[in-house]
Amino acid sequence: MILPIVAYGDPVLRKKAENITKDYPNLDALIENMKETMYAAYGVGLAAPQIGLPIRLFLVDTEPFAEDDIYTEEEQEKLKHFNRVFINAEILDEEGDEWAFNEGCLSIPDVREDVFRQPKITIKYQDENFDTHTEVFDGLIARVVQHEYDHIEGVLFTDKLSSLKKRLIKGKLTNISKGKIKVDYRMRFPLMKKKR
After folding, report:
1. Residues at the annotated binding site for Fe cation?
2. N or C: which end of the chain has fewer CB within 10 A?
3. Which residues of the chain have pLDDT under 70?
4. Whether this model's pTM surpasses 0.85
5. Which residues lie below 8 Å from residue 164, measured CB to CB, with a gap of 6+?
6. Judging by beta carbons within 10 Å of its beta carbon (0-12, 13-18, 19+), is residue 75 exposed, middle or buried?
7. What positions carry a catalytic annotation?
8. What are the backbone angles phi and psi of residue 164, rounded to the nearest 5°?
9. Structure confidence at residue 196 (pLDDT)
10. DSSP-assigned beta bridge partners for residue 121
11. Which residues are annotated as active site (predicted)?
């Protein structure tokens, strides 16, 4: 089932999400619905807060980036096959010189800005079977994971912009929160006036 994606301005996007256990209600169905929602919106990641749930769960599928010929064949192969569910994730380490990449977010449509992040992360998480993994990711995979991880920490990519950039996009963000935007996927807007 395709779920509505929560728009910028909803308080759930600012909550630090809670850990869950394997007996979280209907978890398998929730993960399937999140995947369906992410693919319907042409996303490469989706976090539970983006569908209104303040829990530490996010998905990443970098396959769409594999089409981009700026990457080596080896990188394209890696991107093509990176499809993970992250539960109760915790970034243990971030390292390397920060690099800029143009990021966007399904909760903040039509806003894309360069964000600086470190290129290598070590992350501990549980998969959908609640097996625990500690892995190191780098490059674009690390970046997508960092972006989704920020969601479960109550952080948005716009928080990482300079104060000048934040001022420049303020009007766009206000319009998004009021539902004054056209998107081709289902969204839930926090400040839309209810029709009587």
Report:
1. 105, 147, 151
2. C
3. 192-196
4. yes
5. none
6. middle
7. 148
8. -65, -50
9. 44
10. 94, 137
11. 148
